[in-house]
Specification:
This protein is an alpha/beta fold. The chain has one domain: FAD/NAD(P)-binding domain (3-Layer(bba) Sandwich). Helix content is about 20%, strand content about 20%. The protein contains eleven helices and 17 strands. The strands form four sheets. Strands 1, 2, 6, 7, 8, 9 and 17 form a seven-stranded mixed β-sheet that branches. It has a four-stranded mixed β-sheet with strand order 4-3-15-14, covered by helices on one side. The chain has a three-stranded antiparallel β-sheet with strand order 5-11-12, with helices on one face. Helix 1 runs parallel beside helix 6. It is globular and about 70 Å long. The protein starts with 5 loop residues before the first strand and ends with a helix.
Length: about 550
Protein backbone atom coordinates (compact mmCIF):
# COMPACT_ATOMS: atom_id res chain seq x y z
CA UNK A 1 0.00 0.00 0.00
CA UNK A 2 1.46 3.32 -1.09
CA UNK A 3 0.34 6.57 0.53
CA UNK A 4 0.35 10.14 -0.83
CA UNK A 5 3.70 11.89 -0.48
CA UNK A 6 4.55 14.05 2.53
CA UNK A 7 7.49 16.38 3.04
CA UNK A 8 9.33 14.42 5.73
CA UNK A 9 9.14 11.03 7.41
CA UNK A 10 10.67 10.95 10.90
CA UNK A 11 11.31 7.40 12.14
CA UNK A 12 11.22 7.27 15.93
CA UNK A 13 9.23 9.47 18.32
CA UNK A 14 11.78 9.68 21.14
CA UNK A 15 14.17 12.24 22.57
CA UNK A 16 15.29 13.52 19.15
CA UNK A 17 12.56 12.45 16.75
CA UNK A 18 9.84 14.19 18.72
CA UNK A 19 11.75 17.47 18.61
CA UNK A 20 12.60 17.21 14.90
CA UNK A 21 8.96 16.49 14.08
CA UNK A 22 7.84 19.51 16.10
CA UNK A 23 10.36 21.89 14.53
CA UNK A 24 9.55 20.78 10.99
CA UNK A 25 5.82 20.98 11.62
CA UNK A 26 6.18 24.47 13.09
CA UNK A 27 7.98 25.41 9.85
CA UNK A 28 4.88 24.35 7.92
CA UNK A 29 6.23 21.07 6.54
CA UNK A 30 3.98 18.02 6.39
CA UNK A 31 5.50 15.35 8.66
CA UNK A 32 4.74 11.68 9.21
CA UNK A 33 6.14 10.69 12.64
CA UNK A 34 6.44 6.91 12.89
CA UNK A 35 6.72 5.15 16.26
CA UNK A 36 7.02 1.37 16.58
CA UNK A 37 5.50 1.38 20.09
CA UNK A 38 2.36 2.84 21.60
CA UNK A 39 1.49 5.71 23.94
CA UNK A 40 2.12 3.92 27.30
CA UNK A 41 -0.03 6.07 29.59
CA UNK A 42 0.67 5.88 33.32
CA UNK A 43 -2.63 4.07 33.89
CA UNK A 44 -1.16 1.11 31.94
CA UNK A 45 2.38 1.08 33.34
CA UNK A 46 2.05 2.30 36.93
CA UNK A 47 4.70 1.73 39.59
CA UNK A 48 5.38 -1.94 38.96
CA UNK A 49 9.08 -2.29 39.81
CA UNK A 50 9.37 -5.70 38.16
CA UNK A 51 8.27 -4.18 34.83
CA UNK A 52 10.14 -0.88 35.14
CA UNK A 53 12.66 0.21 32.53
CA UNK A 54 15.49 -0.68 34.94
CA UNK A 55 14.57 -4.26 35.87
CA UNK A 56 12.26 -5.76 33.18
CA UNK A 57 11.99 -9.04 35.11
CA UNK A 58 8.39 -9.48 33.98
CA UNK A 59 8.86 -7.75 30.64
CA UNK A 60 9.26 -4.10 29.79
CA UNK A 61 6.22 -1.91 30.35
CA UNK A 62 7.48 0.54 27.72
CA UNK A 63 8.53 -2.02 25.11
CA UNK A 64 9.84 -3.55 23.01
CA UNK A 65 8.33 -6.90 23.93
CA UNK A 66 9.85 -10.36 23.99
CA UNK A 67 7.23 -11.74 21.61
CA UNK A 68 8.24 -9.62 18.62
CA UNK A 69 11.90 -8.68 19.03
CA UNK A 70 15.20 -10.54 19.32
CA UNK A 71 18.91 -9.75 18.94
CA UNK A 72 22.18 -11.64 18.92
CA UNK A 73 25.10 -10.95 21.23
CA UNK A 74 28.53 -12.25 20.32
CA UNK A 75 30.25 -14.22 23.08
CA UNK A 76 34.01 -14.19 23.80
CA UNK A 77 34.46 -17.53 22.01
CA UNK A 78 33.06 -16.03 18.80
CA UNK A 79 29.67 -17.73 18.97
CA UNK A 80 26.44 -15.78 19.34
CA UNK A 81 23.40 -16.20 21.56
CA UNK A 82 19.87 -14.92 21.17
CA UNK A 83 18.75 -12.28 23.67
CA UNK A 84 15.33 -10.77 24.31
CA UNK A 85 14.45 -7.18 25.29
CA UNK A 86 13.90 -8.25 28.91
CA UNK A 87 17.58 -9.32 29.14
CA UNK A 88 20.30 -6.77 29.94
CA UNK A 89 22.52 -7.91 27.08
CA UNK A 90 19.86 -6.69 24.62
CA UNK A 91 20.92 -3.09 25.40
CA UNK A 92 17.36 -1.91 25.20
CA UNK A 93 15.83 1.52 24.82
CA UNK A 94 12.10 2.04 25.26
CA UNK A 95 9.71 1.57 22.34
CA UNK A 96 6.88 4.04 22.94
CA UNK A 97 5.85 7.61 22.23
CA UNK A 98 8.55 9.66 23.95
CA UNK A 99 11.03 6.78 23.77
CA UNK A 100 13.44 6.64 26.68
CA UNK A 101 12.38 10.10 27.84
CA UNK A 102 9.10 8.66 29.13
CA UNK A 103 10.86 6.59 31.79
CA UNK A 104 14.32 8.18 32.09
CA UNK A 105 15.76 9.62 35.28
CA UNK A 106 15.58 13.04 33.59
CA UNK A 107 19.04 14.37 34.40
CA UNK A 108 19.58 17.22 31.92
CA UNK A 109 23.31 17.77 31.47
CA UNK A 110 25.25 19.93 29.07
CA UNK A 111 28.50 18.37 27.90
CA UNK A 112 31.62 20.36 28.76
CA UNK A 113 33.68 22.28 26.23
CA UNK A 114 36.46 19.71 26.38
CA UNK A 115 34.00 16.89 25.67
CA UNK A 116 33.77 18.22 22.10
CA UNK A 117 37.58 18.41 21.78
CA UNK A 118 38.71 15.17 23.40
CA UNK A 119 41.39 14.21 20.86
CA UNK A 120 42.86 17.73 20.85
CA UNK A 121 42.82 17.77 24.66
CA UNK A 122 44.21 14.29 25.35
CA UNK A 123 45.24 12.53 22.19
CA UNK A 124 43.71 9.17 21.27
CA UNK A 125 44.61 6.09 23.34
CA UNK A 126 46.02 3.24 21.29
CA UNK A 127 43.19 1.04 20.08
CA UNK A 128 40.57 3.79 20.24
CA UNK A 129 38.96 5.94 17.54
CA UNK A 130 38.72 9.03 19.73
CA UNK A 131 38.14 12.18 17.66
CA UNK A 132 37.00 15.77 18.05
CA UNK A 133 33.43 16.65 17.14
CA UNK A 134 32.97 18.70 13.95
CA UNK A 135 30.99 21.20 16.05
CA UNK A 136 32.12 23.12 19.14
CA UNK A 137 30.26 23.65 22.38
CA UNK A 138 29.91 27.34 21.53
CA UNK A 139 27.95 26.48 18.38
CA UNK A 140 25.63 24.12 20.24
CA UNK A 141 25.16 26.37 23.29
CA UNK A 142 22.10 28.29 22.00
CA UNK A 143 20.44 24.96 21.27
CA UNK A 144 21.20 23.68 24.79
CA UNK A 145 19.35 26.76 26.04
CA UNK A 146 16.49 26.13 23.65
CA UNK A 147 16.19 22.53 24.86
CA UNK A 148 16.21 23.64 28.51
CA UNK A 149 13.38 26.11 27.93
CA UNK A 150 11.31 24.18 25.38
CA UNK A 151 11.49 20.82 27.15
CA UNK A 152 11.71 22.32 30.64
CA UNK A 153 14.71 21.95 32.97
CA UNK A 154 14.99 22.87 36.64
CA UNK A 155 18.41 23.95 37.92
CA UNK A 156 20.57 26.80 39.13
CA UNK A 157 22.88 28.56 36.68
CA UNK A 158 26.36 28.96 38.11
CA UNK A 159 25.87 26.40 40.88
CA UNK A 160 28.20 24.00 39.06
CA UNK A 161 31.68 25.53 39.36
CA UNK A 162 32.76 23.62 36.24
CA UNK A 163 29.75 24.49 34.09
CA UNK A 164 30.57 25.74 30.59
CA UNK A 165 29.39 29.25 29.61
CA UNK A 166 25.66 29.68 29.14
CA UNK A 167 23.58 32.40 27.54
CA UNK A 168 20.45 31.88 29.65
CA UNK A 169 19.53 30.74 33.12
CA UNK A 170 17.34 27.71 33.71
CA UNK A 171 13.59 28.25 33.29
CA UNK A 172 12.85 26.74 36.72
CA UNK A 173 14.63 26.73 40.10
CA UNK A 174 16.30 23.48 41.18
CA UNK A 175 14.45 20.75 43.00
CA UNK A 176 15.10 20.99 46.75
CA UNK A 177 17.63 18.64 48.34
CA UNK A 178 16.27 15.55 50.06
CA UNK A 179 17.86 14.18 53.25
CA UNK A 180 20.46 12.04 51.51
CA UNK A 181 21.53 14.85 49.16
CA UNK A 182 21.87 17.31 52.05
CA UNK A 183 24.21 14.98 53.91
CA UNK A 184 26.31 14.33 50.82
CA UNK A 185 26.51 18.03 49.90
CA UNK A 186 27.85 18.92 53.37
CA UNK A 187 30.54 16.22 53.28
CA UNK A 188 31.60 17.12 49.72
CA UNK A 189 32.30 20.68 50.85
CA UNK A 190 34.45 19.33 53.69
CA UNK A 191 36.49 17.50 51.06
CA UNK A 192 36.95 20.73 49.12
CA UNK A 193 34.69 19.54 46.32
CA UNK A 194 31.93 21.55 44.65
CA UNK A 195 28.47 19.99 45.13
CA UNK A 196 25.39 21.46 43.46
CA UNK A 197 21.76 20.53 42.67
CA UNK A 198 21.45 18.39 39.55
CA UNK A 199 19.73 19.97 36.51
CA UNK A 200 16.62 17.89 35.92
CA UNK A 201 14.03 17.77 33.14
CA UNK A 202 11.42 17.72 35.91
CA UNK A 203 9.16 20.58 36.93
CA UNK A 204 10.13 22.09 40.27
CA UNK A 205 7.23 24.53 39.81
CA UNK A 206 4.23 24.40 37.47
CA UNK A 207 5.52 24.82 33.91
CA UNK A 208 3.91 24.78 30.48
CA UNK A 209 0.53 23.90 31.98
CA UNK A 210 1.80 20.86 33.87
CA UNK A 211 2.25 20.57 37.66
CA UNK A 212 5.37 20.46 39.78
CA UNK A 213 6.98 17.19 40.88
CA UNK A 214 5.11 15.58 43.79
CA UNK A 215 8.28 13.94 45.14
CA UNK A 216 7.32 10.30 44.61
CA UNK A 217 10.29 7.89 44.64
CA UNK A 218 9.23 6.11 41.43
CA UNK A 219 11.05 8.21 38.84
CA UNK A 220 13.87 6.56 36.93
CA UNK A 221 12.45 3.59 35.08
CA UNK A 222 8.84 4.74 35.38
CA UNK A 223 6.41 7.14 33.76
CA UNK A 224 5.28 10.16 35.75
CA UNK A 225 1.77 10.01 37.19
CA UNK A 226 1.31 13.82 37.05
CA UNK A 227 3.37 14.56 33.88
CA UNK A 228 5.90 16.63 35.82
CA UNK A 229 8.72 14.75 34.08
CA UNK A 230 9.40 16.45 30.77
CA UNK A 231 9.34 13.72 28.19
CA UNK A 232 8.88 14.62 24.53
CA UNK A 233 5.64 12.65 24.93
CA UNK A 234 4.19 15.58 26.92
CA UNK A 235 6.17 18.47 25.39
CA UNK A 236 7.40 18.48 21.80
CA UNK A 237 5.18 15.76 20.33
CA UNK A 238 1.80 17.20 21.44
CA UNK A 239 2.93 20.58 20.14
CA UNK A 240 3.87 18.98 16.81
CA UNK A 241 0.49 17.28 16.48
CA UNK A 242 -1.30 20.51 17.43
CA UNK A 243 0.09 22.24 14.33
CA UNK A 244 -2.00 19.91 12.13
CA UNK A 245 1.16 19.39 10.08
CA UNK A 246 2.38 16.31 11.98
CA UNK A 247 0.69 12.92 11.78
CA UNK A 248 1.82 10.72 14.69
CA UNK A 249 1.42 7.05 13.74
CA UNK A 250 1.92 4.40 16.43
CA UNK A 251 2.61 0.69 15.97
CA UNK A 252 4.66 1.42 12.84
CA UNK A 253 7.74 -0.80 12.50
CA UNK A 254 10.07 0.60 9.83
CA UNK A 255 11.64 -2.05 7.63
CA UNK A 256 13.42 -0.12 4.87
CA UNK A 257 14.27 3.34 3.58
CA UNK A 258 13.32 3.42 -0.09
CA UNK A 259 15.81 5.00 -2.51
CA UNK A 260 15.72 5.62 -6.26
CA UNK A 261 18.25 4.69 -8.93
CA UNK A 262 20.25 7.83 -8.15
CA UNK A 263 20.57 6.97 -4.46
CA UNK A 264 18.10 9.59 -3.27
CA UNK A 265 15.71 8.69 -0.42
CA UNK A 266 12.13 8.59 -1.66
CA UNK A 267 10.22 7.14 1.28
CA UNK A 268 10.00 4.64 4.14
CA UNK A 269 8.40 1.20 4.19
CA UNK A 270 6.86 0.08 7.47
CA UNK A 271 4.55 -2.54 8.92
CA UNK A 272 1.35 -1.49 10.69
CA UNK A 273 -1.42 -3.86 11.72
CA UNK A 274 0.03 -6.59 9.53
CA UNK A 275 0.18 -4.45 6.39
CA UNK A 276 3.31 -3.30 4.56
CA UNK A 277 2.93 0.41 3.85
CA UNK A 278 5.13 2.75 1.83
CA UNK A 279 5.15 6.42 2.81
CA UNK A 280 6.76 8.49 0.03
CA UNK A 281 8.48 11.71 1.06
CA UNK A 282 11.02 14.32 0.08
CA UNK A 283 13.34 13.79 3.09
CA UNK A 284 13.86 11.02 5.67
CA UNK A 285 15.04 11.53 9.28
CA UNK A 286 16.07 8.45 11.24
CA UNK A 287 15.86 8.81 15.04
CA UNK A 288 15.63 5.20 16.20
CA UNK A 289 18.58 4.90 18.69
CA UNK A 290 22.22 3.93 18.32
CA UNK A 291 21.31 0.26 17.83
CA UNK A 292 18.09 0.46 15.80
CA UNK A 293 19.23 3.28 13.49
CA UNK A 294 22.15 1.23 12.08
CA UNK A 295 19.78 -1.71 11.69
CA UNK A 296 17.45 0.33 9.48
CA UNK A 297 20.39 1.65 7.40
CA UNK A 298 21.74 -1.88 6.94
CA UNK A 299 18.33 -3.22 5.92
CA UNK A 300 18.02 -0.45 3.30
CA UNK A 301 20.94 -1.76 1.22
CA UNK A 302 20.75 -1.42 -2.58
CA UNK A 303 23.02 -2.03 -5.56
CA UNK A 304 24.38 1.50 -5.07
CA UNK A 305 24.82 0.91 -1.33
CA UNK A 306 25.44 -2.83 -0.90
CA UNK A 307 26.61 -2.45 2.74
CA UNK A 308 23.67 -0.27 3.68
CA UNK A 309 22.91 3.42 3.44
CA UNK A 310 25.74 5.68 4.59
CA UNK A 311 28.04 2.69 4.97
CA UNK A 312 30.34 3.06 1.98
CA UNK A 313 33.39 3.13 4.28
CA UNK A 314 32.14 0.63 6.91
CA UNK A 315 31.48 3.11 9.73
CA UNK A 316 27.78 2.47 10.28
CA UNK A 317 27.32 0.49 13.48
CA UNK A 318 30.90 1.06 14.66
CA UNK A 319 32.05 2.77 17.88
CA UNK A 320 29.10 1.67 20.01
CA UNK A 321 29.36 3.39 23.39
CA UNK A 322 27.30 3.65 26.52
CA UNK A 323 28.74 4.52 29.88
CA UNK A 324 31.02 2.49 32.14
CA UNK A 325 29.20 3.23 35.39
CA UNK A 326 31.45 3.25 38.44
CA UNK A 327 30.89 4.21 42.06
CA UNK A 328 30.44 2.87 45.54
CA UNK A 329 27.89 1.97 48.18
CA UNK A 330 28.03 3.01 51.80
CA UNK A 331 26.38 1.52 54.87
CA UNK A 332 25.46 3.93 57.67
CA UNK A 333 24.46 3.58 61.30
CA UNK A 334 21.39 5.78 60.87
CA UNK A 335 18.74 6.05 58.17
CA UNK A 336 19.27 8.54 55.36
CA UNK A 337 16.45 7.46 53.04
CA UNK A 338 13.40 9.68 53.43
CA UNK A 339 11.42 8.37 50.45
CA UNK A 340 11.45 11.70 48.64
CA UNK A 341 12.16 11.42 44.95
CA UNK A 342 13.64 11.83 42.50
CA UNK A 343 16.58 10.59 44.53
CA UNK A 344 19.25 12.06 42.27
CA UNK A 345 19.57 15.54 43.79
CA UNK A 346 23.27 16.35 44.28
CA UNK A 347 26.33 16.02 42.07
CA UNK A 348 30.00 16.97 41.79
CA UNK A 349 31.83 17.60 38.51
CA UNK A 350 35.29 17.79 40.08
CA UNK A 351 36.36 14.64 38.21
CA UNK A 352 35.06 15.05 34.67
CA UNK A 353 38.45 16.20 33.39
CA UNK A 354 41.97 16.85 34.61
CA UNK A 355 42.50 13.49 36.31
CA UNK A 356 46.03 12.46 37.29
CA UNK A 357 48.21 9.84 35.62
CA UNK A 358 47.27 10.67 32.05
CA UNK A 359 43.65 9.58 32.47
CA UNK A 360 41.35 10.99 29.80
CA UNK A 361 37.90 12.37 30.52
CA UNK A 362 36.14 11.19 33.66
CA UNK A 363 32.63 11.30 35.11
CA UNK A 364 30.31 13.36 37.22
CA UNK A 365 29.42 11.80 40.57
CA UNK A 366 25.93 11.88 42.05
CA UNK A 367 23.53 10.02 44.30
CA UNK A 368 21.70 8.35 41.45
CA UNK A 369 19.08 6.87 42.03
CA UNK A 370 16.68 5.62 44.70
CA UNK A 371 17.11 1.87 45.06
CA UNK A 372 13.60 0.48 45.19
CA UNK A 373 13.38 -2.85 47.03
CA UNK A 374 13.91 -5.31 44.19
CA UNK A 375 16.73 -3.33 42.57
CA UNK A 376 18.30 -2.75 45.98
CA UNK A 377 18.32 -6.49 46.66
CA UNK A 378 20.12 -7.11 43.36
CA UNK A 379 22.66 -4.29 43.27
CA UNK A 380 23.24 -2.69 46.68
CA UNK A 381 24.28 -5.74 48.69
CA UNK A 382 27.88 -6.11 50.00
CA UNK A 383 29.84 -8.94 48.36
CA UNK A 384 29.84 -11.10 51.50
CA UNK A 385 26.04 -11.07 51.95
CA UNK A 386 24.18 -14.03 50.40
CA UNK A 387 22.17 -13.29 47.25
CA UNK A 388 19.19 -15.26 48.49
CA UNK A 389 17.76 -16.83 51.62
CA UNK A 390 16.99 -15.61 55.14
CA UNK A 391 20.31 -13.78 55.64
CA UNK A 392 19.74 -11.88 52.42
CA UNK A 393 16.20 -10.89 53.39
CA UNK A 394 17.34 -9.83 56.83
CA UNK A 395 20.05 -7.58 55.39
CA UNK A 396 17.59 -5.88 53.02
CA UNK A 397 15.07 -5.29 55.82
CA UNK A 398 17.68 -3.86 58.18
CA UNK A 399 19.73 -1.72 55.79
CA UNK A 400 17.42 -0.59 52.99
CA UNK A 401 17.05 2.87 54.53
CA UNK A 402 20.64 3.21 55.74
CA UNK A 403 22.52 2.58 52.48
CA UNK A 404 23.65 5.26 50.05
CA UNK A 405 24.99 4.94 46.52
CA UNK A 406 27.22 7.38 44.69
CA UNK A 407 28.17 6.71 41.08
CA UNK A 408 28.87 8.30 37.73
CA UNK A 409 28.84 7.57 33.97
CA UNK A 410 32.49 7.19 32.96
CA UNK A 411 33.17 8.61 29.50
CA UNK A 412 34.17 5.69 27.31
CA UNK A 413 36.81 5.66 24.62
CA UNK A 414 35.18 4.74 21.28
CA UNK A 415 36.43 1.47 19.78
CA UNK A 416 36.00 0.58 16.10
CA UNK A 417 35.20 -3.08 16.81
CA UNK A 418 32.56 -2.37 19.46
CA UNK A 419 29.72 -2.53 17.09
CA UNK A 420 26.26 -3.31 15.79
CA UNK A 421 26.10 -5.37 12.60
CA UNK A 422 23.35 -7.04 10.61
CA UNK A 423 22.50 -10.62 11.60
CA UNK A 424 20.57 -11.71 8.51
CA UNK A 425 20.13 -15.24 9.81
CA UNK A 426 17.76 -14.10 12.59
CA UNK A 427 14.59 -12.13 11.94
CA UNK A 428 11.99 -10.47 14.11
CA UNK A 429 8.24 -11.11 14.04
CA UNK A 430 7.88 -9.03 10.84
CA UNK A 431 10.63 -10.92 9.02
CA UNK A 432 13.09 -8.02 9.31
CA UNK A 433 16.73 -9.09 9.85
CA UNK A 434 17.96 -8.24 13.32
CA UNK A 435 21.39 -7.19 14.63
CA UNK A 436 24.37 -8.66 16.41
CA UNK A 437 26.18 -6.68 19.13
CA UNK A 438 29.86 -7.41 19.65
CA UNK A 439 33.09 -5.97 21.01
CA UNK A 440 34.37 -4.77 24.37
CA UNK A 441 35.24 -1.62 26.26
CA UNK A 442 38.66 -0.04 25.94
CA UNK A 443 40.95 -0.89 28.86
CA UNK A 444 41.31 2.82 29.58
CA UNK A 445 37.63 2.95 30.62
CA UNK A 446 38.36 0.55 33.46
CA UNK A 447 41.30 2.65 34.66
CA UNK A 448 39.09 5.75 34.86
CA UNK A 449 36.32 3.70 36.47
CA UNK A 450 38.64 2.59 39.28
CA UNK A 451 39.59 6.22 39.94
CA UNK A 452 35.94 7.33 39.99
CA UNK A 453 34.90 4.45 42.26
CA UNK A 454 37.65 5.35 44.72
CA UNK A 455 36.45 8.97 44.81
CA UNK A 456 32.88 7.78 45.41
CA UNK A 457 34.14 5.72 48.34
CA UNK A 458 35.97 8.75 49.78
CA UNK A 459 32.76 10.79 49.53
CA UNK A 460 30.70 8.16 51.35
CA UNK A 461 33.28 7.73 54.11
CA UNK A 462 33.38 11.49 54.67
CA UNK A 463 29.59 11.37 54.94
CA UNK A 464 29.90 8.84 57.77
CA UNK A 465 29.71 5.42 56.15
CA UNK A 466 30.82 2.66 58.50
CA UNK A 467 31.41 0.35 55.55
CA UNK A 468 31.89 0.90 51.82
CA UNK A 469 32.31 -1.28 48.75
CA UNK A 470 32.91 -0.36 45.14
CA UNK A 471 30.88 -0.81 42.00
CA UNK A 472 33.02 -1.37 38.89
CA UNK A 473 32.09 -2.09 35.26
CA UNK A 474 33.17 -5.16 33.34
CA UNK A 475 35.01 -5.27 30.04
CA UNK A 476 31.97 -6.26 27.98
CA UNK A 477 30.53 -4.11 25.21
CA UNK A 478 28.59 -1.11 26.45
CA UNK A 479 25.26 0.17 25.16
CA UNK A 480 22.17 0.31 27.30
CA UNK A 481 19.96 3.34 27.59
CA UNK A 482 22.89 5.75 27.03
CA UNK A 483 23.89 4.10 23.76
CA UNK A 484 25.67 6.31 21.25
CA UNK A 485 28.29 6.56 18.53
CA UNK A 486 27.27 4.17 15.76
CA UNK A 487 26.66 6.84 13.08
CA UNK A 488 29.15 9.43 14.22
CA UNK A 489 29.26 12.91 12.75
CA UNK A 490 32.39 14.27 11.09
CA UNK A 491 33.75 16.36 8.26
CA UNK A 492 35.55 13.44 6.59
CA UNK A 493 33.11 11.12 4.82
CA UNK A 494 35.67 8.30 4.97
CA UNK A 495 35.72 8.24 8.79
CA UNK A 496 32.16 9.27 9.70
CA UNK A 497 28.56 8.64 8.66
CA UNK A 498 26.91 12.08 8.84
CA UNK A 499 28.12 15.65 8.49
CA UNK A 500 27.98 18.34 11.19
CA UNK A 501 24.26 18.87 10.50
CA UNK A 502 23.48 15.14 10.75
CA UNK A 503 23.06 14.62 6.99
CA UNK A 504 24.26 11.23 5.72
CA UNK A 505 27.34 11.89 3.56
CA UNK A 506 26.22 9.74 0.62
CA UNK A 507 22.49 10.58 0.61
CA UNK A 508 21.77 14.28 0.62
CA UNK A 509 18.13 14.00 1.75
CA UNK A 510 18.68 11.45 4.54
CA UNK A 511 19.44 12.57 8.09
CA UNK A 512 20.28 10.71 11.31
CA UNK A 513 19.35 12.59 14.47
CA UNK A 514 19.80 10.64 17.70
CA UNK A 515 22.58 9.54 20.06
CA UNK A 516 24.25 7.53 17.32
CA UNK A 517 25.80 10.72 15.87
CA UNK A 518 27.78 11.38 19.07
CA UNK A 519 31.53 11.26 18.50
CA UNK A 520 32.00 10.51 22.19
CA UNK A 521 29.46 10.32 24.97
CA UNK A 522 30.75 12.66 27.66
CA UNK A 523 30.77 11.88 31.38
CA UNK A 524 27.07 12.67 31.68
CA UNK A 525 23.63 11.34 30.83
CA UNK A 526 23.29 12.21 27.12
CA UNK A 527 19.60 13.13 26.72
CA UNK A 528 19.94 16.94 26.76
CA UNK A 529 22.79 16.78 24.22
CA UNK A 530 20.67 14.56 21.97
CA UNK A 531 17.89 17.13 22.18
CA UNK A 532 20.18 20.12 21.60
CA UNK A 533 21.50 18.42 18.46
CA UNK A 534 17.91 17.79 17.36
CA UNK A 535 17.20 21.53 17.53
CA UNK A 536 20.55 22.26 15.82
CA UNK A 537 19.89 19.87 12.94
CA UNK A 538 16.23 20.79 12.44
CA UNK A 539 17.04 24.15 10.85
CA UNK A 540 19.24 22.45 8.26
CA UNK A 541 16.57 19.84 7.54
CA UNK A 542 14.02 22.60 6.86
CA UNK A 543 16.46 24.22 4.42
CA UNK A 544 17.07 20.86 2.77
CA UNK A 545 13.38 20.19 2.17
CA UNK A 546 12.63 23.70 0.95
CA UNK A 547 15.73 23.71 -1.24
Amino acid sequence: MKLPRVDVVVVGAGAAGGIVAEQLALAGLQVALLERGGRSPFSETGHDELRSQRTTVLGNAFGPDDQHYVRLVQLPDGTSRRVLPSEGAYNNVAACVGGGTLSYGAMAWRYMERDFRMRTTYGAPEGSTLEDWPIAYQELEPFYSKAEWEIGVSGKAGANSFEPPRSQSYPMPPLPMNQEASLLAASARKLGWHPFPIPMAINSVPYQGRPACIGCPHCVGFGCEVNAKNSTAVTAIPRAVATKHCDLRIGCVASRIVTDEHGKATGVEYFQDGRLIEQPCRTVVVSCSATETPRLLFNSATKLFPRGLGNRHDWVGRNLQGHAYAGAYGLFETDSYDGVGPAARVACCDFNHGLPGGLKGGAMLSNEFIRLPYLFSRTAIPPDVPRWGSAHKRYVREHFKSTMAVQGPVQEMPVFDSRVELASEVKDAWGIPTIRISGERHSHDLEVARFIAAKAEVWLKETGAIRTWQKLPGRGVSGGQHQAGTCRMGNNSKTSVVDRYCRVHDVDNLFVVDGSVHVNNGGFNPSLTIQAIAYWASGEIVKNVRG
